[in-house]
Amino acid sequence: MRAPRTFPVVLAGFTAFLDLYATQPLLPLLARTFHATNFAVSLTVTAPTIAVGLAAPAVGRLGDALGRRRVIVASAFALALSTLFAATATTLPQLVAWRFVQGLVTPGVFAVTIAYIHENWPGSRVGTVTAAYVTGTVVGGFAGRVVAGLMAADVNWEMSFAALGALILAAAIALWWLLPAERVAAPPLAGSRAGSLAAHLRNRPLLATCAVGFGVLFTLVAMFTYVTFLLAAPPYLLSTAALGWLFVVYLVGALVTPFSGRWIDEHGHRTALAVAVALGVAGALLSLLHPLAWIVAGLALACTGVFIAQATATSHVGEVAGHNRGLAVGLYALFYYAGGSVGAALPSAVWSAGGWPACVALVIVVQAATMAIATVFW
Questions:
Q1: Is the Cα dihedral 112, 175, 255, 301 positive or negative?
Q2: Sign of the C-alpha dihedral, residues 132, 135, 137, 139?
Q3: What is the pLDDT of residue 151?
Q4: pTM (two decimals)
Q5: At which of 139, 171, 188 does a domain end?
Q6: CA Rg, the chain, in Å?
Q7: Based on the domain organization, do 31 and 180 belong to the same domain?
Q8: Which of 113, 111, 162 has the alpha carbon at shortest distance from 8?
Q9: In this structure, are 294 and 367 located in the same domain?
Q10: Local structure of 322: helix, strand or coil
Q11: Residue 341: CATH number of its domain
């Protein structure tokens, strides 16, 4: 039986990440609108990511039980609905609450899609398809920030969520129309959920992959959060709008990542991760140079390495899980988003001590530890 087309899983990745970080360019506007502190409005970013980490293991299990296509499509519609409801918020706590709901339903799209890929494509093509899916997540994350920023600047912040909700609704309809049923029926649940989770927790290659995921998002969040402090200060003095356009470098990674998929399939996960980490370290070191052009080039190189590492790790999850892949992907997502949360907080301590060079040193240490873990356990 021929494998389905790749486009629907790319669309699923695009849909899942379209509004996950969409409030980043809106934070100053939200602070003025609600007369709130920077920390308070930052909860519109952290609330959905915390919810993703909490919900991912359970939603992955749901995909194993009810069927992956069914959960992906239903979650996409739920994400569209919660995004549209976010546009009706009249207070900051209401907005944060709806952002949390968005995070709860998001894993039903992205975590279950990864398991879906492993059920529908032969092992020789999983890396390629996963890389295409990661490209969809990258483009979705970039597009969500751009759409939110443009709508808020031209109309108001509520229209940002209305526009994103309409886009996600269109994508959900497209997924319902285009995403084929999985080639293999959803397997019966093997034992209790606790038993399945215990089996995964004894799987050292899987736990190592979760640790790699932790390091992947730690690197991305740490680099792109704290470089803004560097570039907003003298001698660069970049405006908020200019800092927002730094995310254009994501598109470099979006162009390169699909080609990495075939390389993963041909040369293996550990080798691909080694290349990704090397790119990430080189990009981090390049960002230490003073000319702005070199810093931007370093960020482009670093995020390209991160996206390749993400494609490598996510494709490796299904390979080493063996059974209950949805639950395994959910466990991976828990570690992945924990890495992002720590990556947003921990560098603040080293920033106080040594500024951007200290942050870069921390990122390189995390990348080296990530590679060491994969070398031993993959």
A1: negative
A2: negative
A3: 86
A4: 0.74
A5: 188
A6: 20
A7: yes
A8: 113
A9: yes
A10: coil
A11: 1.20.1250.20
Number of domains the chain is built from:
2
- Do 306 and 347 lie in a common domain? yes
pLDDT less than 70: residues of the chain: 1-4, 38, 60, 64, 123-124, 183-197, 240-241, 243-244, 322-326
Among residues 153, 168, 188, which one ends one of the domains? 188
109 and 224 share one domain: no
Burial classification of residue 278, based on how many CB atoms lie within 10 Å of its CB (0-12 exposed, 13-18 middle, 19 or more buried) = middle
pLDDT at 287: 95
Helices (H), the chain: 7-17, 27-34, 38-66, 68-86, 92-105, 107-120, 123-154, 157-178, 193-201, 204-232, 240-244, 250-267, 269-286, 292-321, 325-345, 347-377
Domain holding 224, by residue range, is 189-378
User: How does DSSP assign 98-157, residue by residue?
Assistant: HHHHHHHHTHHHHHHHHHHHHHHS-HHHHHHHHHHHHHHHHHHHHHHHHHHHHHHHHT-H
Same domain, 214 and 318: yes
Summarize pLDDT for 72-122 with one digit per residue, the tens: 999 999 999 999 999 999 999 999 999 999 999 998 898 788 778 877 787
The pair of three-digit structure tokens given for residue 186, joined into one six-digit string: 């959803």
> Three-state DSSP class for 183?
coil
